[in-house]
Predict the structure.
Amino acid sequence: MKTALLLLIVVFAKAAEMVTGFGGSVIALSLGSTLMPIKELVVAVVIVSLLLSLWMVFRNYQNIQWRILLLRILPLTALGLPIGRWIFSHYGAGQLKLIMGAFITFIATLELINLYRTHGRTRTLPWPLSMAFLLAGGVVHGIFGTGGPLIVYYACRQIPDKAPFRATIPVLWVILNAALIASYAATKSITPADLRLAGLLLPALVVGIIIGEILHPRVNEFAFRVAVQVVLLITGIAFLVHG
Protein backbone atom coordinates (compact mmCIF):
# COMPACT_ATOMS: atom_id res chain seq x y z
CA MET A 1 0.00 0.00 0.00
CA LYS A 2 2.81 2.41 0.88
CA THR A 3 4.52 1.72 -2.46
CA ALA A 4 1.28 2.22 -4.39
CA LEU A 5 0.64 5.54 -2.65
CA LEU A 6 4.19 6.71 -3.38
CA LEU A 7 3.76 5.85 -7.06
CA LEU A 8 0.48 7.78 -7.20
CA ILE A 9 2.18 10.79 -5.59
CA VAL A 10 4.95 10.70 -8.21
CA VAL A 11 2.42 10.43 -11.05
CA PHE A 12 0.60 13.52 -9.76
CA ALA A 13 3.83 15.43 -9.10
CA LYS A 14 5.36 14.75 -12.49
CA ALA A 15 2.13 15.45 -14.37
CA ALA A 16 1.99 18.85 -12.61
CA GLU A 17 5.60 19.52 -13.57
CA MET A 18 4.91 18.57 -17.19
CA VAL A 19 2.18 21.23 -17.29
CA THR A 20 4.01 24.04 -15.49
CA GLY A 21 7.71 23.21 -15.93
CA PHE A 22 8.47 22.90 -12.21
CA GLY A 23 7.18 21.81 -8.82
CA GLY A 24 7.28 18.04 -9.22
CA SER A 25 10.14 17.46 -6.81
CA VAL A 26 8.73 19.48 -3.93
CA ILE A 27 5.29 17.88 -4.33
CA ALA A 28 6.85 14.41 -4.40
CA LEU A 29 9.07 15.13 -1.40
CA SER A 30 6.45 16.86 0.72
CA LEU A 31 3.74 14.26 0.16
CA GLY A 32 6.18 11.35 0.03
CA SER A 33 7.66 12.33 3.38
CA THR A 34 4.38 11.26 4.99
CA LEU A 35 5.23 7.71 3.89
CA MET A 36 8.99 7.55 4.48
CA PRO A 37 11.83 9.76 5.81
CA ILE A 38 12.69 12.59 3.44
CA LYS A 39 16.40 11.68 3.56
CA GLU A 40 15.50 8.35 1.94
CA LEU A 41 13.58 10.09 -0.85
CA VAL A 42 15.77 13.00 -1.90
CA VAL A 43 18.34 11.22 -4.08
CA ALA A 44 15.77 9.07 -5.92
CA VAL A 45 13.50 12.06 -6.54
CA VAL A 46 16.40 14.12 -7.90
CA ILE A 47 17.37 11.29 -10.29
CA VAL A 48 13.79 10.93 -11.57
CA SER A 49 13.44 14.71 -11.85
CA LEU A 50 16.59 14.88 -13.97
CA LEU A 51 15.10 12.36 -16.40
CA LEU A 52 11.86 14.34 -16.63
CA SER A 53 13.72 17.61 -17.23
CA LEU A 54 15.80 16.00 -19.99
CA TRP A 55 12.57 14.90 -21.68
CA MET A 56 11.07 18.38 -21.44
CA VAL A 57 14.22 19.99 -22.86
CA PHE A 58 14.15 17.53 -25.77
CA ARG A 59 10.48 18.25 -26.46
CA ASN A 60 10.69 22.06 -26.21
CA TYR A 61 14.23 22.88 -27.29
CA GLN A 62 13.20 25.53 -29.86
CA ASN A 63 11.54 27.74 -27.21
CA ILE A 64 14.45 27.96 -24.75
CA GLN A 65 15.42 31.53 -23.81
CA TRP A 66 19.18 31.01 -23.76
CA ARG A 67 20.16 34.64 -23.11
CA ILE A 68 18.07 34.94 -19.94
CA LEU A 69 19.12 31.47 -18.79
CA LEU A 70 22.87 31.77 -19.34
CA LEU A 71 23.43 35.43 -18.48
CA ARG A 72 20.96 35.96 -15.64
CA ILE A 73 19.48 32.84 -14.08
CA LEU A 74 22.29 30.28 -14.19
CA PRO A 75 25.26 32.28 -12.79
CA LEU A 76 23.50 33.34 -9.57
CA THR A 77 21.71 30.05 -8.94
CA ALA A 78 24.95 28.15 -9.56
CA LEU A 79 26.62 30.38 -6.96
CA GLY A 80 23.93 29.53 -4.40
CA LEU A 81 23.88 25.77 -5.08
CA PRO A 82 27.10 24.78 -3.21
CA ILE A 83 26.04 26.95 -0.27
CA GLY A 84 22.82 24.96 -0.07
CA ARG A 85 24.70 21.65 -0.34
CA TRP A 86 26.94 22.71 2.55
CA ILE A 87 23.94 23.64 4.69
CA PHE A 88 22.26 20.31 3.80
CA SER A 89 25.41 18.40 4.84
CA HIS A 90 26.05 20.21 8.12
CA TYR A 91 22.74 21.46 9.52
CA GLY A 92 19.11 20.48 9.92
CA ALA A 93 16.81 22.15 7.40
CA GLY A 94 13.61 22.22 9.46
CA GLN A 95 13.74 25.86 10.52
CA LEU A 96 14.70 27.02 7.04
CA LYS A 97 11.75 25.06 5.61
CA LEU A 98 9.35 26.95 7.87
CA ILE A 99 10.81 30.34 6.92
CA MET A 100 10.79 29.45 3.22
CA GLY A 101 7.28 28.04 3.43
CA ALA A 102 5.90 31.21 4.99
CA PHE A 103 7.66 33.43 2.45
CA ILE A 104 6.65 31.39 -0.61
CA THR A 105 3.05 31.13 0.56
CA PHE A 106 2.96 34.90 1.05
CA ILE A 107 4.38 35.84 -2.36
CA ALA A 108 2.32 33.24 -4.25
CA THR A 109 -0.87 34.51 -2.61
CA LEU A 110 0.01 38.10 -3.49
CA GLU A 111 0.80 37.10 -7.06
CA LEU A 112 -2.52 35.26 -7.46
CA ILE A 113 -4.37 38.35 -6.23
CA ASN A 114 -2.32 40.51 -8.59
CA LEU A 115 -3.02 38.25 -11.58
CA TYR A 116 -6.77 38.52 -11.09
CA ARG A 117 -6.70 42.26 -10.38
CA THR A 118 -4.57 43.06 -13.46
CA HIS A 119 -6.03 40.34 -15.71
CA GLY A 120 -2.65 38.70 -16.17
CA ARG A 121 -0.40 41.74 -16.68
CA THR A 122 2.84 41.59 -14.68
CA ARG A 123 6.05 43.60 -14.44
CA THR A 124 9.62 42.32 -14.23
CA LEU A 125 11.34 42.49 -10.85
CA PRO A 126 13.98 45.20 -10.14
CA TRP A 127 17.48 43.82 -10.74
CA PRO A 128 18.66 43.90 -7.06
CA LEU A 129 15.56 41.95 -6.03
CA SER A 130 16.06 39.57 -8.97
CA MET A 131 19.62 38.88 -7.82
CA ALA A 132 18.41 38.12 -4.29
CA PHE A 133 15.69 35.75 -5.55
CA LEU A 134 18.06 33.85 -7.84
CA LEU A 135 20.87 33.49 -5.30
CA ALA A 136 18.44 32.37 -2.59
CA GLY A 137 16.78 30.02 -5.08
CA GLY A 138 20.10 28.31 -5.75
CA VAL A 139 20.66 27.86 -2.00
CA VAL A 140 17.19 26.33 -1.57
CA HIS A 141 17.74 23.98 -4.50
CA GLY A 142 21.02 22.85 -2.98
CA ILE A 143 19.30 22.06 0.32
CA PHE A 144 16.09 20.41 -0.84
CA GLY A 145 16.59 19.60 -4.56
CA THR A 146 13.06 20.90 -5.06
CA GLY A 147 13.23 23.07 -8.15
CA GLY A 148 13.84 26.41 -6.47
CA PRO A 149 10.47 28.13 -6.05
CA LEU A 150 12.25 31.47 -5.75
CA ILE A 151 13.86 30.92 -9.15
CA VAL A 152 10.44 30.18 -10.58
CA TYR A 153 8.97 33.35 -9.08
CA TYR A 154 11.68 35.38 -10.83
CA ALA A 155 11.32 33.47 -14.10
CA CYS A 156 7.54 33.79 -14.30
CA ARG A 157 7.98 37.58 -14.13
CA GLN A 158 10.83 37.61 -16.65
CA ILE A 159 9.35 35.02 -19.06
CA PRO A 160 5.56 35.43 -18.82
CA ASP A 161 4.67 33.42 -21.96
CA LYS A 162 3.84 29.76 -21.43
CA ALA A 163 5.98 28.02 -24.06
CA PRO A 164 9.31 29.83 -23.40
CA PHE A 165 8.87 29.55 -19.63
CA ARG A 166 8.11 25.83 -19.76
CA ALA A 167 11.06 25.25 -22.11
CA THR A 168 13.67 27.35 -20.27
CA ILE A 169 13.15 26.31 -16.65
CA PRO A 170 13.77 22.56 -17.26
CA VAL A 171 17.21 23.37 -18.75
CA LEU A 172 18.13 24.89 -15.40
CA TRP A 173 16.83 21.83 -13.55
CA VAL A 174 18.96 19.58 -15.78
CA ILE A 175 22.09 21.57 -14.90
CA LEU A 176 21.36 21.90 -11.18
CA ASN A 177 20.19 18.31 -10.70
CA ALA A 178 23.17 16.93 -12.64
CA ALA A 179 25.41 18.97 -10.30
CA LEU A 180 23.53 17.61 -7.27
CA ILE A 181 23.89 14.01 -8.46
CA ALA A 182 27.62 14.55 -9.09
CA SER A 183 27.88 15.95 -5.56
CA TYR A 184 26.00 12.97 -4.13
CA ALA A 185 28.34 10.60 -6.00
CA ALA A 186 31.47 12.45 -4.88
CA THR A 187 30.40 12.24 -1.23
CA LYS A 188 29.20 8.63 -1.58
CA SER A 189 25.65 9.70 -0.73
CA ILE A 190 24.07 7.51 -3.43
CA THR A 191 23.25 4.04 -2.10
CA PRO A 192 21.94 0.91 -3.86
CA ALA A 193 18.64 1.55 -2.05
CA ASP A 194 18.45 5.00 -3.68
CA LEU A 195 18.97 3.48 -7.13
CA ARG A 196 16.37 0.77 -6.48
CA LEU A 197 13.84 3.39 -5.38
CA ALA A 198 14.57 5.52 -8.46
CA GLY A 199 14.00 2.47 -10.65
CA LEU A 200 10.74 1.75 -8.83
CA LEU A 201 9.55 5.31 -9.58
CA LEU A 202 10.28 5.16 -13.33
CA PRO A 203 6.84 3.74 -14.35
CA ALA A 204 5.15 6.52 -12.36
CA LEU A 205 7.35 9.05 -14.19
CA VAL A 206 6.24 7.69 -17.56
CA VAL A 207 2.55 7.86 -16.61
CA GLY A 208 3.02 11.40 -15.29
CA ILE A 209 4.66 12.45 -18.57
CA ILE A 210 1.76 11.03 -20.60
CA ILE A 211 -0.86 12.77 -18.45
CA GLY A 212 1.07 16.05 -18.55
CA GLU A 213 1.45 15.93 -22.33
CA ILE A 214 -2.32 15.51 -22.64
CA LEU A 215 -3.17 18.33 -20.22
CA HIS A 216 -0.62 20.97 -21.26
CA PRO A 217 -2.09 21.96 -24.67
CA ARG A 218 -5.49 22.46 -23.01
CA VAL A 219 -4.21 25.16 -20.62
CA ASN A 220 -4.35 28.77 -21.92
CA GLU A 221 -1.78 31.46 -21.03
CA PHE A 222 -3.73 33.00 -18.13
CA ALA A 223 -4.67 29.61 -16.69
CA PHE A 224 -1.03 28.54 -17.03
CA ARG A 225 0.21 31.52 -15.01
CA VAL A 226 -2.44 30.90 -12.37
CA ALA A 227 -1.35 27.23 -12.28
CA VAL A 228 2.27 28.28 -11.75
CA GLN A 229 1.30 30.37 -8.73
CA VAL A 230 -0.98 27.64 -7.36
CA VAL A 231 1.90 25.15 -7.52
CA LEU A 232 4.09 27.72 -5.75
CA LEU A 233 1.38 28.11 -3.11
CA ILE A 234 1.21 24.32 -2.66
CA THR A 235 5.00 24.33 -2.38
CA GLY A 236 4.92 26.94 0.38
CA ILE A 237 2.21 25.14 2.31
CA ALA A 238 4.11 21.86 1.95
CA PHE A 239 7.20 23.46 3.47
CA LEU A 240 5.09 24.74 6.38
CA VAL A 241 3.32 21.45 7.04
CA HIS A 242 6.46 19.32 6.84
CA GLY A 243 8.90 21.91 8.25
